Amino acid sequence: MNLSRPFVRRPIGTVLLTIGIALAGIAAFFVLPVSPLPQVDYPVISVRASIPGASPETMATSVATPLERHLGTIAGVNEMTSTSSVGSSRVTLQFDLSRNIDGAAREVQAAINASRVDLPATLRSNPTYRKANPAASPVIILALTSKTKTPGQIYDAVSNIVSQRLSQVDGVGDVEIGGGSLPAVRIELLPFALNRYGISTDDVRAAIQASNANRPKGMVQGEGRKLQIYTQTPALRASDYASMVVAWRNGAAVRLREVADVIDGVEDTRTLGLFNGEPAIIVLITRQPSANIIETVDNVRALLPELQAQLPPDVTLQVASDSTNSIRSSLREVEMTLVIAVLLVVLVVSLFLRSVRATVVPAVATVVALLGTFGVMHLLGFSLNNLSLMALTVATGFVVDDAIVVLENTSRHIEAGMSRMKAALLGAQEVGFTVLSISVSLVAVFIPLLFMGGQVGRLFREFAVTLSAAVLISLVISLTTTPMMCAWMLKPGGNNGHGNGKPPGRFGRAAERSYDWMLKRYESALDWALDSKAIVMFVLLAVVGLNVYLFSAAPKGFFPQQDSGQLNGGLRADQSISSQAMAAKLREVVDIIRKDEAVDTVVGFTGGGRAGGGFMFVNLKPASQRKDSGLAVIARLRPQLAQVTGLRVFLGPVQDVRSGGRSSNSTYQYTLKSDSLSDLRTWAVKLADEMKQQPTLTDIDTDQDQNGVETVAKVDPDSARRLGLTSTAIDNALYNAFGQRQVATIYTELNQYHVVMEWAPAYTRSPNALRDVYVPATRTSVVGGQAVTTQVAATTSTSTSAASTSAAATVPVSANAGLRNASTGNVLSNTATTLVPLSAVAKFEEQSVATSVSHEDGELATTISFNLAEGANLGDAREAIAKAEANIAMPTNVRGAFAGTALSAQQSQGQQVMLILAALVVIYIVLGILYESLVHPVTVLSTLPSAGVGAVLALLMFRMEFSIIALIGVFLLIGIVKKNAILIIDFALEAERSRGLSPLEAVREACLLRFRPILMTTLAAALGALPLAIGFGEGAELRRPLGVAIIGGLIASQLLTLLTTPVVYLLLDKLRRRGKNEHALSRAPAA
């Protein structure tokens, strides 16, 4: 049966079918989404909660732990981490790749609602969640600046206008505003004035809440009219609060301005944002894990003109950083690489065929196969990304193979004098099985990858399916369109190899002489190999052993380090540093980075929950405008940034592939777990210090640095009871003084603002301020002593002896914590409240403390992050960390494991050997089915070790890691190099069956006659990969390992397999015949 016959006999229908495939692909190309890589992001949801002023331990035990207990029951969670710092907790849930993020979000909200009963009453509002990974880099950063507006006013505009509109954009997962805070009325208490009047801070808080009441008043209804009841608007500005009466003393009103400085300020004065050195409000926009980055950024940019029009005229909205600029450039480079690869493949075909008509045949097959693949990608929901376009680039060398095999066989028959129609039908029929074997076995290579899980499986899947689709479409074209074009386009009479029937020109004659020279040399080498089978087999076995050694010795990596044109990182100073000093250091760092010739823009901000730290985002100039890579820029900046005293700066290039939901200052993470928080903190610091001594590791950082300073107020319980002090009163007094406590809410038409109360800054700059804290006493004292802890930004220790206090009459304190932001109904204090100095019942000590508490999967955890030194790989890192743990004799109750990207790399490397073995097994099964033989597939598989040796040697020569991109190259080589053996085996078997040649004669003739198509297809595959290996333009570092591995493997396999394949064929055929004879003898009847 000849499958090609109906297509050859009906050329018009075949042409229209081919055109239809091409048009469908062209239409699909323009609607395919664009992205840097296949969708490999884990669904991540981040839950946040805050209690301003609460310590990390308090947030961890009272907020994070209850949330974790409820969130941990959600199905599909594969990682749950939490970080609690001063005043805030964040729980991050990472789900399985198959989990729908919208469905997960509903379950997260239900868990938050269920946890509310276990959360403390001081939590101002319910925890909120965002469908975004807090560890992910922003897709676009906006900066708002003004020469006349204050940061608070700009922040207000962002909160009212920009933030909400951006959150509604399709694909946006989170909008974070940094560098400022909302406007607020700040009540800066004067402690000595309060003491003079006998007014406690709770008295002031209660008075503000009573005056700020905003409750429903009802209505008056009667005689046909209905009237709503209103009262005057509550206080809105500082001037409204300044005249507020907070107490009565001796019949005279004590107004707020007499005991406090009342100003219009912001909620948090300890924040700063900079854009290119100028104060700015920074807007960080993160996409949802499932959203397309290009579409998300385009949607955001489309909204910016409208947002700018709604902002005040003197506020400028600018794009500070756009991560899609480098992505778009990289994709343009890959598309250009694809075009160049197609042209190179057509060129190599034309050099061999030297006929325009003959060249058109495989050129049409190549173009139609690639265009048809775009249609398949659209149907499967794929995108145009670096990997799918790389698959198409590599496929140019594959899809042309089938057409070349059919064309070359047809041309051979035409040159022998056969008519074009008959030659086309016979040529397609003869090699139909060969073409089918080559294509099906190539597709079979990728079958194991389709069942691979995790991020690497997702990366492989789109690449494998795209390439397989191109190969299968090529198979169809080569058995339909290609023979039809041969029957109707080739010149009769054997002139297809000499261009239009004319004698070859000087270049043609040179090419022909070169080919004849190579054929003669190959014939001599082939005869030697057939006469020296033992030597050839020894070389083959040596290559197998070398392959195993090189694979085990080659440096392993996860994903090539990308030069995305963006750098990000963190700042780490002593956690007791003041906000003013930290702001000065941030300005110094920004100034240093801005001066570098490769830097375009710099964004930095500090403050909020980032005590003693901050974040940096650096946008480099386009690759065409700078000489150095991102890593080279970091190396140049590192010694300059090291000169900033008391500060460590971590910078790294932004990468497209990242795992885990925990933020860190370095790329790779190592997590320690323990049941004891003190042991965890102790050994985390020790291990981090020891890791700094390892030469293969750099940029060591940990989230448990013991450089925070804590002032502990140790209360004497007996003295507290005797003086009528409760733990609640002590907590409130400290919180009112130092916690920037939000004591009331101001409601306006567009937003809600807060009244923030604390001591005036002049009284909070030293731990000595605790001596001036006075606590209101009550008539009933029922609570025992309790140590109270607060975080202060100070480095000077103090100790205070107990002081006596005279007895005085007391009145009930009018504050009521149960009714926040509302009137309590109590009258203002008109009698001096008994105030007891805290120093009368407590002594104060300073101690070091970690500034955050972390959990992972419900256990106490801490993360050490690190980068690799130049020339080091993750295997070296594993050895270095194991050595560091041994050096410090880390106890067994502290357990360590890789996390995030390092864990994904470790898992992918553990699967590599099994994937390669699975691919070999699948190929053997497929070829065994096609050949109906257990022996011939082994001959085909014998060609693979040489390709592996060539690939790894090429990677080592160019100092590249064996990454997952290089692994893809190895899988491609498995599919490519077996083609040589298939071409030889098919022809030899046919010669044995049809003409009765001996195995030696058949395989020798097959090698010589198939030398031309083998050489053509190998050169086509190599030239298709050449643009990838050269690696020009942005994103080249991602493409180079693939091209280098393919070309290195092709060169090695071409040199060896043309000699080893016939030898292995003969030896296995001899074993097959011997086994058949022995089987026949065993079945023969005894004489």
UniProtKB/TrEMBL annotation:
Gene Ontology molecular function, alphabetical: xenobiotic transmembrane transporter activity
Pfam families attached to this UniProt entry: ACR_tran (PF00873)
Keyword Iron carried by entry: no
Key words, A-Z: Cell inner membrane, Cell membrane, Membrane, Transmembrane, Transmembrane helix, Transport
Gene3D superfamilies the record matches: Multidrug efflux transporter AcrB pore domain, Multidrug efflux transporter AcrB pore domain like, Multidrug efflux transporter AcrB TolC docking domain, DN and DC subdomains, Multidrug efflux transporter AcrB transmembrane domain
Transmembrane segments: 12-32, 336-353, 360-380, 431-451, 463-490, 534-552, 913-931, 951-977, 1014-1032, 1044-1068
SUPFAM superfamilies: Multidrug efflux transporter AcrB pore domain, PN1, PN2, PC1 and PC2 subdomains, Multidrug efflux transporter AcrB TolC docking domain, DN and DC subdomains, Multidrug efflux transporter AcrB transmembrane domain
Any one of the GO CC terms: plasma membrane
Membrane topology annotation: Multi-pass membrane protein
Keyword Amino-acid biosynthesis: no
Name of the featured protein: MMPL family transporter
